[in-house]
Sequence to fold (309 residues):
Amino acid sequence: MSRVRDRTEDFKDVVRQTALSLGYDESKLAAILANFIIHRPRQRSPFTRGALKTLESIGTLEQFMLKHRKDYVDLHRTTEQERDSIEHEVSAFIKACQEQIDVLKNSINDEEASSKGWLGIRADKSNADTIAHKHGVVLSLSERLHSVTSQFDQLRAIRFQDAISRATPRRKFKRITKPTSENTSKSDNLEFREADQFQPEPLKVQQQLLDDETRALQVELTSLLDAVQETETKMVEMSALNHLMATHVLQQAQQIEQLYDQAVEATKNVELGNKELSQAIQRNSSSRTFLILFLFVLTFSILFLDWYS
Fold:
């Protein structure tokens, strides 16, 4: 086994001599030699920088949700306006992260379209592997964002459920108090009917109008409460449907990724099949040429032997 020799110093001497021959001064030569000791950091691609920025934004969103979780859920810590502000900021965070992921997807699609050659066939195999890796990165970011948004959907469902539970007792109370108020008004009318007979006619008419307005106002408030509760129920259902739709979208993204992997594998199999077909055609042509040459030599040999005999 031959001995290993370190040729680093020889390489440095060659670099120094080449630099001096090209006219480099001492400062440039020192900078070149310093690169052998302290290597420059590798320049990241725009896609990598965008993916890291998106991952950092998702992490910031998750920290923000963990910080304001109790403030958003607990009714005694903050007001409705503050909870609405928290929800608005989280929605803006999610929208910004989704836009960054869409930008990454568009860059991948542009690169994939530019890498295809004539008839849509990929020219470089390494580029196809890089594009597949980028698709995996985007899928991972989408899954991370989906997990964070699902946590916020759960918090939003808790808030809506608390709102419904707070609205339900008031509705029952008013339904109970409505007939009682009518009964009390009827009893009051029965008790003071004789006294009302002695009241002047304008006062009796005014009292009747006030009673009618009170009943109409009670009916209107009850209908408004029913409409509010129905709206809150629909909002909870919409939140659940939104969460379900996001889950199905994530499943479809995973299925699309699997289909993409299968398409890449099928493309490789087609390329291998084309190579095998070309080799079979070459073998067939060579065997045909050999057979024709053999028959020609055999015929010539028979003719020669017949002529010689």
User: Anything to note?
Assistant: Confidence is low (pLDDT under 50) at residues 170-182, 189-199.
